[in-house]
Design brief:
Blueprint (H helix, E strand, L loop, with lengths): L2 E4 L3 H13 L3 E6 L14 E4 L12 H10 L4 E3 L9 H9 L3 E2 L4 H8 L1 H10 L7 E3 L2 H7 L7 E5 L8 E4 L5 H16 L4 E5 L5 E9 L5 E13 L2 E7 L6 H17 L4 E9 L5 E7 L6 H8 L3 H9 L16 E8 L1 E2 L5 E2 L2 E2 L2 E3 L6 E4 L8 E2 L6 E9 L2 H13 L2 E3 L5 H9 L1 H4 L7 H18 L4 H11 L10 H5 L7 E6 L2 E11 L2 E6 L2 E11 L2 E6 L2 E11 L2 E6 L2 E7 L14 H4 L4 E3 L4 E6 L6 E2 L4 E7 L2 E6 L4 E6 L6 E2 L4 E6 L11
Helix pairs in contact: 3-4, 11-12
Length: about 675
Amino acid sequence: MNKILIANRGEIALRIIRTAKKMQISTVLVYAPQDVGAAYLNEADETILLEGQSLSETYLNGNNIIAAAKAVRADAIHPGYGFLSENAAFAKACRDQGIIFIGPTPEAMEAMGNKIAARQTAMAAGVPVTPGITGTVQELMAHSGSVGFPLLIKAAAGGGGKGMRVVQEEAALKDALEATAREARNYFGDDTVYIEKYIAAPRHVEVQVLGDQHGHIIHLYERECSLQRRHQKIIEEAPSPTLTPQIREQICNAAVQLAAAIGYRSAGTLEFLVDPDLSFYFLEMNTRIQVEHPVTEQTTGIDMVEQQIRIARGEPLSLQQNDIRQKGHAIECRIYAEDPEQQFLPAPGTLLFYKEPQGENIRIDGMQLQQGATVTGDFDPMIAKLITWGTDREAARVRMIEALQQYFIYGIKNNIAFLSALLHHPDFTGNRISTKYIDTHLAGLLQQFENRKKAEDIRIPLAAALVFSLLPHEKEPASIWEAIGYWRPVQQIKLNADGREIAVMIRRQSPFSVNFEYDAALISATLTPTEAQQFHLILDQQLHPVHIFETTPGVFMVRYHGSDYTVTRNDILHIADETLPPPSAIAATAGNICAPMPGKVIKVAVVAGSAVKTGELLLIVEAMKMENNILSPKDGVVTAIAVAEGDKVDAITTLIHIEDMDNKTPSAGS
């Protein structure tokens, strides 16, 4: 095997490339038009553009992918996960074309791809399954009593949380069956459904297996994936903190037993539901590598992609079951572009700032995102996987919290703060969770997380943003107006800190230190840079690590204790140099003073005929609920006032006309 074509994208494509490089195998990566310019494409030895816009034309077009593999003389295709990874017809087509499919046989996929057939196989192999029945809608209605309520309806060909409904009582069963069948037909092209016992608060535990082409099958122990939203995992860990050693041995042996029953080869995962009394039931088998495979790699030291490739080459497993040990504990958090406060609604967009954490026992499986990159809405909203390892669960948890605090994504909504708060929650540390935990407790969790954030000292993000906003600019001024600063320092500054309107009085200021009065107290704040966008804030002699990023002029994101605070300088909010109208200081040569932005005049501080000095207050314009002082750019005489208090003005309206002292005659039309 000299060349592998990777039929996938993003982080899993990059993950496969890295192992292939280690094994000195060249790689070809296909990509859709939506991924043009993605940084991870540069890691492959060759790339091939898939024509078309829809998934069916690109990543799901098996014929075109096989044609691409043949065109570049690839020996094998690795499908990653998702897309064509569990498509038996695609695996068979690869085999028919003489291309190695890095995965199980089509026959094994078919045996486990249909949930009804998989249940029957499990029962024949002596592996426990939840009580359930199959049949037509009418048959299921007639025999539902043998399962009892509540029950779970599932699509036979379903996956990824699609095609599932919980029914609490018989009166709702018929409509739910028909709705699930319709959904299954739309998503999977197969409207076959079945019903099974609903376990109210189960754990989700899965066992990783490896099988070679010589009949050897081993397990790499289990991992737990109980923290889910909408039936999709967001936090996974290995080993399971729930199982006893005895149950661990039983469930791992059951997984090997079932994999052996279908002659499985390659990497695969047997998923189980575990009752509160630790009874376990076979759920389904994923005949591919899993998203959460890194936690197994971190605790066993085994590169699973390498094992997949070696098995596909026909090599016997070099590992014996007795050689494999779980060492320490690993936790994986899936970093998503989504909004937890809006039921985890996907949130694509452009990254204004992106920085991944680094350090010992921290692993990132990402796609080399960087500032300015776009997270498209065309694919799954997962940005990356963050994995930490520790000598035990608590050490891995603490390391994960530290890593999340150093993970910065600005410009799009994401779940970093939500994940961090979950890991702090006593229900996580006490392992009082289930697959229903997040969905059931979401409103309460969000409120608890918000209360935890509000309990922090607001002066810390406030002071950090204030001092940062007053730091001298490093760039050379493009004009005299930038040199003198349109928004001159004033004694009082109004800010908004996470929705709280706050006014501070500046008492003393130097480049990195500010003394200011807030809430009738004098506060001393000093900001010391440590790394890019990272600082030590010393507030009244106490040190606080903070991260500060200015998303737009006047809007600052401050990361403190794992939470992001939005702090705005109201006097400079949303003003960017390139969008400013001709600055008043320059226009003043003609005598015209204009507003910096549309707003309302709330104070006129001068009268016609009065002499003014440079820097003297002329008037105050309120814009975006913020007061902005308009100062005189030169010495002169006010010859005309074109507005009154209460007037609404735009950015081109002449507010005041000033003439030099030796030319007091007003301009025509002023």
